[in-house]
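Possible regression after last week's pipeline update?

I re-ran a chain I had predicted before the update to compare outputs. Posting the input and the new output here so someone can diff against the archived version. Not blocking, just want to make sure nothing changed silently.
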Amino acid sequence: AGVDVDPVDEVTIRTGAGPAGLRGSDAVLGTLLSAIDARRAVRFKHRPSPVGAYLERNVEPWGVVTARGRWYLVGHDRDRDDTRIFRLSRIIDVQADGPSGEVRRPDGVDIRALVERGIGEAIRGGQATIWVASGRGTALRRAGRVVDRRVIGGREGDVIELEVDAMDWLAREAAGYGADALVLEPHSLREDVLGDRKS
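New output (post-update):
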């Protein structure tokens, strides 16, 4: 990680007011850096979006990087058996889990490139289609146009097409409406929103 840390000692990071995206996360960063240096797995609670509930994660941490003013953890999520990127400002209750020397970052993995690609995909805009229950979703209605009426789950609503600059905004907005909004397209956005609700 570029920082020498005694794996036995706890790391203390002083950031003053804290850089953007890290305020309140000093303990999280310190624990993660210690675990990365000791090559230990970690357990923590992660909130996939500002409106999502916290979900327990079991991760083999490979590194921490900054991108676009925010801090990110990259590693292997053991429960999902996949490489994942986590924003540090959405992580709490980090604990080292397992013996030292257990975690190995795969050869040739460029964690900075993974983060840049991951956040680039999250913020890239495009067109989306969302069903919104009748009388609900004012912000979604203002951002798009009604193209159809449809009954879903026994409830009447409108199908709205939106052109958005940032899919992450739309994911947060749709998730915030709960059962009153359902993403129809694109599939990747639908999965993100449904995942936020399940967590």
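Follow-up from reviewer: compared with the archived run. The beta strands are 41-46, 55-67, 70-77, 82-87, 91-97, 126-133, 144-152, 155-164, 181-185. Marking as no regression found.
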